[in-house]
Design goal:
This protein has 610 residues and is α/β, with parallel strands linked by helices. The protein contains 19 helices and 25 strands. Strand 12 and strand 13 (220-224) form a beta hairpin. The longest helix has 23 residues, at 428-450. The structure holds 6-O-phosphono-alpha-D-glucopyranose.
C-alpha cells in the first residue's frame, strides 16, 4: 500500500483476507516516512499471521504510509523467519516480496556471490532482489533495473518492491503469477487476489504478463518490458464484500456448502437466454467449429479434475463426443495428441493454478481451441483461453472447494446439453426437459442440506477411523473421488477412492474389521453390482455407509450398515446431489477431530507454483 493512511494495518488486514490460501510465515516492510534517508522497518514471523500481529502490535509498532507485506508458502527452504519475505539487500536499497518460482536462482546466486553479494536465506527470492539491485547500482533507475532482471529471470513471479531512494513509489512486475492493483482516494494497493483489497476499493487494474507498474499515493503508471508506458482501463469488481465474510457460520467451508444452491442457481441463470434455452453466444463459441468438433479434453487439477472425470461420462453419454480427462500436471509435460477439431477445456476455480495454466498454453501451442471454465473473473486462465464460461459461485475462501466444484459441474452439464442439441443428439424438447431438471437441482440441494444433523451424527461416530474407502461405479465413482479428496484434505483421515469393480484387484486386501467403506450406489442399473461389492467388504469386517436414491434406500438397508437416502434427479445430474453429503461428512469429521477446517495443513487455495 502507498497513500495517506498508515500502511501496516492495511497490509495486515489484506494478508488476513488472503489467509485462507494457506501459508507458513509472514512479513511486512514499512518505510517510516518519505525522507530520502528514512528507515525501512522489516518485521517477520513464522507461523500464523497472529504472530506477526502480536509482534507489530497490530501494525501500530511499524508506522509509515508506504509498505509491502507477504505470506509465504514454502517452496525453497523451510518455513522460518529467515526465509520469510520481504527480502532485501544489505543496504536496504531494494526490498521485495515475491510470489512464484525463480527457476534459475542457483545460477543467479552463484554469479552474484562472485561479485560480492552475500546470501542469508535458502529462497529463490533473495536471488531476485539482489539481481535487481545489481542492475539498479548500474543505472540508478528502478524500472530499468527491473526490466533487465526480468530478461534474466526464468520462472514465474509477481514482485512488489520498495527502492530506498524512491520514497514516494512502489514498483511491481509480473510474469505468470497473479497480481492486481487497486486504487481509491486514499492511495494505491497491490495484491495477489481481489478479497485482499475489497474492503478498500473495487477499482482494480489487471497487470499483464511481463509488465511493470510504478505506484504513487495518487497514480499508477504501467510499462511494458521495454519501459514504454502503456494505458490500462480499470475494472469495477462486482462481488459484495459480505460474500467474503463468514456471515454467522463457524467456518467458510460450512457457509460455502450452504451457498451451493445459490451458486448453482446463479450459474444456470447465466447460461439461459430469455426463452430459457442454454445460450453460450456470450462466450462467442463459434458454431462452425462446434459442428466439426471431434474430441474434447478436460484438463484440470484437484477437485476441478474430478469435475472432468464426471464430464467424461456426461458428455460421451449425452453428446456422443469422445472425451479424455487429464491431470494438468501430466498433460503439460507430455506430447498429447491434439488433432484438429479438438477442444481443450481447462477447469479452474481460481484461474491461476500453475499446472492448469501451463496445460492451457500447451494446448494452444498444439493448435487446439481452448475453453476455460473459471470462477475468478479476469484471472489469467480466463484471459488466455479462446472461450470462457464463468461459474457464478462468488468468492470461495475455504481451501477445500465446495461451491465452486458444484458450479463447475453445472457448467459441464450446460455444455453437454448445448453440444448434444447442436449435434442432433437431443431434440429441443429433450433439452428443455433437462434444463428444467437442472433448475430443480437447487431446491433438492436445499432439502439435502436440511438433513445435515444425521450426517453430523454419523461423522462424530467415525472420527476414530484410520482408513476410509470410497467406492462407486460410473458417475458414482467420479463422486467417490471427490468425497475421498474432501475427507483427506480437511480431516487428515487416510482415504482412497476406487471404482467398485477394482476392489478385488488390490484394495480389498486392506479391509479389516472396523474399516469404514462409503459406497455410492445411486445408479439403478449398477445397484446390484455395488451391493455385491458391499457384501464382499462386509464379509471382511468393514462397516459400510451407503449413499443411494430414496427409492432404493430400503433395499440398500438390507446390505449396508447405514444408509443415506439422496433425492432423485436425472441420472446424469445425480452427482450434483450426491456430492453434498460427502462434503458435509468431511466437514463434520474434520470438526470433530479438531482440525483447522478452512486452512488445512500444507495445502493452499490457489496453487500458483508448480
Ligand atoms: C488446490 C485447492 C483445490 C482445488 C485445486 C485446483 O489444490 O485446494 O480445492 O481443486 O487447487 O484449483 P483451481 O483453482 O484450479 O480450481
Amino acid at each position: 500500500y502507498i497513500g495517506k493512511k498508515q500502511a501496516a494495518p492495511i497490509l495486515l488486514r489484506g494478508l488476513e483476507k488472503l489467509e485462507y490460501r494457506g501459508y507458513d510465515s509472514a512479513g511486512i516492510a514499512v518505510r517510516e516516512n518519505s525522507a530520502p534517508d528514512a528507515k525501512i522497518n522489516i518485521v517477520k514471523a513464522k507461523g500464523r499471521l497472529k504472530a506477526l500481529l502480536e509482534k507489530t502490535d497490530c501494525g501500530r509498532a511499524v508506522p509509515g504510509l508506504c509498505g509491502i507485506g507477504h505470506t509465504r508458502w514454502a517452496t525453497h527452504g523451510e518455513p522460518s523467519e529467515l526465509n520469510a519475505h520481504p527480502h532485501c539487500t544489505d543496504d536496504l536499497s531494494v526490498v521485495l516480496v515475491h510470489n512464484g518460482i525463480i527457476e534459475n536462482y542457483q545460477e543467479i546466486r552463484e554469479k552474484l556471490t562472485k561479485s560480492g553479494y552475500r546470501f542469508y536465506s535458502q529462497t529463490d527470492t533473495e536471488a531476485a532482489v539482489k539481481l535487481i539491485d545489481s542492475y539498479y547500482k548500474q543505472s540508478g533507475e528502478p524500472l530499468t533495473a527491473i526490466s533487465q532482471a526480468m530478461l534474466r529471470i526464468r520462472g514465474s513471479y509477481a514482485f512488489a518492491m520498495m527502492f530506498r531512494d524512491f520514497p514516494d513509489s512502489l514498483f511491481v512486475a509480473r510474469k505468470d503469477s497473479p497480481l492486481i492493483i487497486g486504487q481509491n482516494g486514499d492511495g494505491c494497493y497491490i495484491a495477489s487476489d481481489v478479497p485482499a483489497i475489497l474492503d478498500s476499493t473495487r477499482t482494480v487494474y489487471y497487470i499483464g504478463n511481463l509488465e511493470m507498474a510504478q505506484l504513487t499515493a495518487g497514480a499508477v503508471h504501467f510499462y511494458n518490458i521495454d519501459r514504454e508506458e502503456i494505458e490500462k482501463e480499470p475494472v469495477q469488481i462486482q462481488w459484495d464484500a459480505e460474500s467474503a465474510e463468514k456471515g454467522g457460520y463457524e467456518h467458510f467451508m460450512l457457509k460455502e456448502i450452504h451457498e451451493q444452491p445459490q451458486a448453482v442457481r446463479d450459474t444456470i441463470q447465466s447460461y439461459l437466454n430469455e426463452q430459457g434455452e442454454i445460450d453460450f453466444s456470450a462466450a462467442s463459441l463459434d458454431d462452425a467449429f462446434l459442428k466439426q468438433l471431434e474430441r474434447i479434453y478436460f484438463v484440470a487439477c484437484g477437485s476441478a479434475y474430478h469435475v472432468g472425470v464426471a464430464a467424461q461420462y456426461v458428455l460421451e453419454d449425452l453428446a456422443k463426443i469422445p472425451v479424455r480427462v487429464e491431470l494438468a500436471s501430466e498433460f503439460r509435460y507430455r506430447d498429447p495428441l491434439v488433432p484438429e477439431n479438438t477442444l481443450v477445456v481447462i477447469i479452474s476455480q481460481s484461474g491461476e493454478t500453475a499446472d492448469s495454466l501451463a496445460a492451457l498454453r500447451k494446448a494452444k501451442e498444439q493448435g487446439a481451441k481452448t475453453l476455460a471454465i473459471v470462477n475468478v473473473v479476469g484471472s489469467t486462465i480466463a484471459r488466455e483461453a479462446d472461450y470462457v464460461f464463468y461459474t457464478l459461485a462468488g468468492p470461495e475462501i475455504a481451501v477445500a472447494t465446495t461451491k465452486a466444484y458444484s458450479a463447475q459441474l453445472l457448467a459441464v452439464y450446460a455444455l453437454a446439453i448445448a453440444f448434444a442439441q447442436d449435434r442432433g443428439q437431443l431434440t429441443d424438447d429433450q433439452a428443455a426437459a433437462l434444463v428444467q431438471e437442472l433448475e430443480s437441482l437447487p431446491g433438492k440441494m436445499e432439502r439435502l442440506l436440511e438433513d445435515e444433523e444425521r450426517i453430523q451424527w454419523f461423522a462424530s461416530k467415525q472420527i476414530a477411523a484410520k482408513d476410509i474407502f470410497f467406492i462407486g461405479r460410473g458417475l458414482d465413482y467420479a463422486i467417490s473421488l471427490e468425497g475421498s479428496l474432501k475427507m483427506k484434505e480437511i480431516s487428515y483421515i487416510h482415504s482412497e477412492a476406487y471404482a467398485a469393480g477394482e476392489l478385488k484387484h488390490g484394495p480389498i486386501s486392506l479391509i479389516e474389521p472396523g474399516t469404514l467403506v462409503i459406497a455410492v450406489a445411486t445408479i439403478p442399473s449398477l445397484f446390484d453390482k455395488t451391493m455385491a461389492n458391499i457384501r464382499e467388504v462386509k464379509a471382511r469386517g468393514a462397516k459400510v455407509l451407503c449413499l443411494t436414491l430414496e427409492s432404493m434406500a430400503q433395499e440398500a438397508g438390507k446390505t449396508a450398515d447405514y444408509v443415506l437416502p439422496i433425492p432423485e434427479t436425472h441420472p446424469l445430474l445425480q452427482p450434483s446431489l450426491n456430492v453434498i453429503p460427502l462434503q458435509v461428512l468431511a466437514y463434520y469429521a474434520a470438526l470433530a477431530r479438531g482440525c483447522d477446517v478452512d486452512k488445512p495443513r500444507n495445502l493452499a487455495k490457489s496453487v500458483t507454483v508448480e
